[in-house]
Amino acid sequence: MNLDTHTPIGAALALLPELVLTAWSLVVLLVVAWRHTTERDSQLAGWLSFVGVALSGVALWWLWSHDARSDGVPHMIALDEFRYASAALILGITGATTLLSIRYLTRQRLLAPEYHCLVLFAAVGMLLMAAASDLIMVFLGLEVMSVSVYVLAGFDRFRRSSAEAALKYFLIGAFASGFLLYGIALIWGATGQTNLTLIAAQLTGAPTTLLLRLGLGMLLIGFAFKVSAVPFHMWAPDVYDGSPTPITGFMATGVKAAAFVALVRVLNEGFPSAKELWQPIIGALAVATILFGNIVALAQDSLKRMLAYSSVAHAGYILVAVWAGTPFGSGAVLFYLASYCMATIGSFGMVAAVEHVGSRTVLIDDLEGLFEKRPWGSLSLAICLLSLLGFPATFGFVGKWYLIASALREGHWILPVATVIGSAISAGYYLPVVTAMTFKPERSVDAHRQVAFSRASKAIVAAVVGATILFGIWPTPVLDGALASARSLTNLVSGMAER
Amino acid sequence: MLLGPSLALSAILFSLGVAGVLLRRNAIVLFMCIELMLNAVNLTFVALSRLYGAGGYVMVFFVMTVAAAEAAVGLAIILAIFRHEQSVDLENINLLRG
Fold first, then answer.
1. Cystine design at A249: which of A188, A269, A348, B50 (Cβ 3.0–4.6 Å)?
2. What's the rounded Cα separation, in Å, for the pair A488 and A264?
3. Beta bridge partners of A77
4. Cis omega before residue A392 (within 30°)?
5. In this structure, are residues A221 and A232 in contact, taking their beta carbons and an 8 Å threshold?
6. What is the pLDDT along chain B (98 residues), one digit of tens a residue?
7. Chain A partners of B66 at a C-beta cutoff of 8 Å?
8. ipTM rounded to 2 decimals
9. Which residues pair with A132 in a beta bridge?
10. B4-97 CATH, one of 1.10.287.3510, 3.40.50.11540, 3.40.50.300, 3.40.50.2000
């Protein structure tokens, strides 16, 4: 099915998942305008927004199954498998976050159902980022996402750490958007285009100008802040530590996935001919991020802070595949994002369940002896952490394998070696959590009495753990899907180049 | 055509904004510096519109809208911090420490 995005109907159909989600989030906002006082209202808003995510998923499935393609050069919105696959991942993350939040919000007495609307608004921004085939759209999607997440980070506003997290995230995030925007302006100045495909066509065979170099550099700084690559990561630990736990999970997965998908599309679709300009920068960022993130994570005693540094380190791993700049590399990014997001959602779901009401954070010591009281829960957390570590027979192992392979295929060895060293170091902070849960005794008799799982969060954690093991043993379907969707990304560019 | 001087001016304004964010300690002043950065970019867009047509003007409107939304959320967050600390000084919140 070909859609002409220059006509109103075509554009509306191309944007169907985003439009459905936006309209539904406005409906939820209207509902909570009248029902926002009791626990039941908060739960109602949560389940309503889950329905919205499901409806948007149906719209996405409709586009995907009809194999919607853009007529000619895509205008603002890309219609290809890379968008559909990443949108499916983002919707999955949003749905999981919503379900994990319902019980957490009532436990922590955060009875403001606008929370769920803000999660939906952020998801719309992420979907737009994943779909953007124009730099203007990248910026607008990024802002729609970021402004909602600033509020969510400070949602527990009576707790000082949450307000501080929001302020820090807001100031650094707006600072980073400034860089991204200046980069877009300079690239527009250098090429006269903001559409990625047209930029690529303009740059083929043209000499690189100072304006282009500056613009690309600014753009990369903006993205590096968003994906928390060293040395632009300094906001991540405090923000992840202070935000409400389900939102920390949302930031570590959804925000990061959307930023990486947009980065891959911008670099591969817009700047394939400027590869020698961006490859050294991405490579240097990757090595610094992997080594720094892993080494500093060793020194943390707060579980949320440790996971924050681990997510910084994982950004470094993913940058290795971004560096490759090949269809295989883009597929590896998508594949690894899926494995990373599953394991991270599962971990933060567990952290949210064991978190004490009103406590500042969750320490690794707080988990001591959890296995005796909650064997299945601790087992799930252990499997998620092992997948993040890259233990064989988990999804994370296969994901990391393809990240390394994507760089090796380009005949490069420093980045794969850094990845392996980083993973070896990361055993030093993932395994102590597992041993604390299993081998150490409980510190007091009722240390784990507050642990509370709702049925919904049990289902989410069980689903991601099941998928982590299943795809660790049998990764072929996901891998084929990821590689096929990444090919759709580059067909377009080579098609343009031939023309 | 004042293209060169306009681009230079916007580069200087942008650098001033960046320097302000990195050096100042007051949340409101930091926020003003970020707005300065965004408006420097707006100047770039307007200046380049002489070359590439009206696309830049449209972009300026987008940026203004986004900046307004950011201001609404940002000032609310600064207010929330003020309720905790009775000040908006960032001495206690180190932005550049991980």
1. A348
2. 13
3. A132
4. no
5. yes
6. 688 899 999 999 999 999 999 998 899 999 999 999 999 999 999 999 988 988 899 999 999 999 999 999 999 999 998 998 888 888 766 654 55
7. 139-140, 143, 147, 177
8. 0.95
9. A77
10. 1.10.287.3510
